[in-house]
Amino acid sequence: MPCAHDQAPPLSAPQFANDPSALGSAASGEAVPATLEKEIRDIYSRSPIYGRRFPLHPEALKWSCYSEIPALSKREIVENGHQSFFADYSEIERGLADRRFEYENTSGTTSNPMTVIMEDGWWAAQTRRSYLASPILREFADRPHRKCVLAPVGCSSNLCPYEDHPFPHRYFDGTVYLNLSSDPFAFSEAEWDRIVLELQATRPEILEGEPVYLSLLARAAARRGVKVPSIRAVILTYGKASLQHGRRIAEVFPAPQVDLYGSTEAGYLFVGEAFRDDSRVIDDNAFIELVPWRDGVEGVHQIHVTTRGREAMPLLRYHTGDIVKSMPEGFRILGREGSLYSRPDGSLVTATDVDLALPADFVCWHFCLSQTGESRWDFHYVADHTADHRSIEAALAGLLGPGVRVNAFRRKSIPPAASGKFALLKPLSRA
């Protein structure tokens, strides 16, 4: 039985962020390209949740039918449970027991944690593909190398085995997970001593982490007079990076910085040189559909992700909540939809705009600009010295729009959300 829209006039193809060659060829302009259609049908065959939501006919897919497949949300996954992806969940339980599958819990924008099931080796394979897609990381994809990771405290599974294990037992396939179970903002100086010492002992070629955490690691290393000349690349991931983070990290760890963007459930999606607006889709990891975000905001898109080659919990038209902007050399990752502010005239303010608006002589380890009322905002920052608050307040008020007042505060720390993640820009919820 054809889709309802197959009886209507043909729909034009949606826009994808991928290189056109990644989608495969199509019989006609209204047909879904072969490579994408095969992935869709493979996902239907592996996970019964999709057939229950929207049955597919056996005829070749057209864009009109593709458009009827409902987008999948994180909330829907949480409400239905990860078990809904599997016809026989007892097989997954056996696989977890004998380590053919692994799991991770992630929270993000939902109030309840979401369990993600992965086939053994999937994370390593899609990480390798991410490296191959980056000119900076490509040299590390297929040769042994050492890496240190400073991950968010919310990363809690067998993929991030820090807990309270001593240093040698946190070294897996050349990778050391530096943090234990605490929030870096609450780390004692003795704990930073341990982390910096492990960093020196490992002599990594790659340093990877959440940008806020790496910025604070740079501060800890600088205070101890420590340099790590072995580092040849810094990967900023887990969260949105500020230019302030990038500069502080580069002052202590002077190596090329890579922005590697994705999510626990979808994997790595975009990679590019940090702060260069040249991020590109990792074509072998996912198909990424660009959905116009709002009328009147040109070039800004939501993304719907269809994973490639996933056996466990494949995602089809998954609405991640991430927003991207088309740029001449690729994409700028704007961050989560809830971390964008719309001025009264409808124009957009992003964390990148905040970076650019700050005075040129302003220096901090971390900041957060939070809306506290309709026209009131607080700017909290972590720094070794108090900045000129009047110049900061005037610059940010000018960015946010007429009638806005900003109050700046120097803080010892800015705690993350309950998920362990940080937001640089926090407008009031309009829900």
The strand count comes to 23
Radius of gyration: 22 Å
Integer average pLDDT? 89
CATH class of the largest domain: Alpha Beta
Q: CATH superfamily of the largest domain, please? A: ANL, N-terminal domain
Model regions low in confidence, pLDDT < 50 over at least 5 residues: none
Helicity range: 25-40%
- Supply the CATH architecture of the largest domain: 3-Layer(aba) Sandwich
The CATH topology of the largest domain is given as Rossmann fold
Q: What composes the largest sheet?
A: 8 strands, mixed
The total domain count is 3
Q: How many alpha or pi helices?
A: 12
Instruction: Quote the distance from N terminus to C terminus.
Output: 39 Å
The largest sheet has its strands arranged as 7-8-5-9-10-11-12-13
Determine the structural class based on helices, strands and strand pairing.
alpha/beta
Shape: globular
Quick structural gist:
With 431 residues, this protein is of the alpha/beta class. 26% of the residues lie in helices and 26% in strands.
Task: Walk me through this protein's architecture.
- The structure is a single chain.
- The protein is of the alpha/beta class and 431 residues long.
- It has 3 domains: 4-72, no CATH class; 75-334, Rossmann fold (3-Layer(aba) Sandwich); 340-426, GMP Synthetase, Chain A, domain 3.
- 26% of the residues lie in helices and 26% in strands.
- It contains 12 helices and 23 strands.
- The protein has helices at 20-23, 34-46, 48-53, 63-66, 74-80, 89-97, 122-132, 189-202, 211-223, 243-252, 351-357, 389-400; strands at 15-16, 72-73, 101-106, 114-119, 147-150, 156-157, 171-172, 175-177, 206-209, 233-236, 257-263, 267-273, 280-281, 286-292, 300-307, 318-327, 330-336, 341-342, 348-349, 366-373, 376-382, 405-411, 425-426.
- The strands form 5 sheets. Strands 7-8-5-9-10-11-12-13 form an 8-stranded mixed sheet, sandwiched between helices.
- Strand 14 and strand 15 (300-307) form a beta hairpin.
- Helix 9 runs parallel beside helix 10.
- The longest helix is centred in the middle third of the chain and has 14 residues, at 189-202.
- The chain starts with 14 loop residues before the first strand and ends in a 5-residue tail after the last strand.
- The relative contact order is 0.12.
- The model has no long low-confidence stretch (mean pLDDT 89).
